[in-house]
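ok trying again, last paste got cut off:
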Amino acid sequence: MKTDDLIAALALDAPAIPPRAIGRGLLLWMVPAGLIAFCGVLFWLGLRADLSSAVVGPTFWAKAAYTLSLGLGAFWLLDRLGRPGASAKQPLILLGTIMILVAVLAAFELIAMPADDRMSALLGQSWLNCPPNIVILSAAAAPFVFFAARRFAPTRPMFAGAAAGLLTAGLAGTLYGLHCPEHTAAFVAIWYSLGMAFSALAGAVIGRFVFRW
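nice, full thing came through this time. structure:
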């Protein structure tokens, strides 16, 4: 019998945990995770100088909608992966749809603007700092999420770890918007997504050991 088959068989014999109990436990630990990430923004990076005016504009909330929706999709995915036999197809479709929509929006934005402005829209003023900052904030929040997710029974530890990493990155990316002044869809689609992808990759590596049977 292959290792994956053995894990799946053991998972099916594991004591049943009410699905809502798993979600509630994870949500509970998301509170300190969010507080840690928020403190990182507040005391390490600092809030953006124009935050009071930015929050009344659409671009601030558009960024938050993207990162938060990916985080929610990752939460759904992690919940499914933590319950043996549950299908991960729907949350994966949701995550893919979100990323495609943002990529299309970014492409239209670049096409519509003058050619001389495109590089500025792509790089902004902080393209070098954005991905590592999201990864660091995500790493600060990750211990709480991984601790909560240890109640799960994932048959694919690396996949579940990637979902947990994306969940923390969605939270971190949303809070990072309190610091980041960039507003173009192209910037968000590339650099925010890159930071979140690195966090998901790191989560996959961590999940291999944390969620190991």
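cool. Residues 37 and 140 are 6 Å apart (CA to CA). Confidence is low (pLDDT under 50) at residues 6-14.
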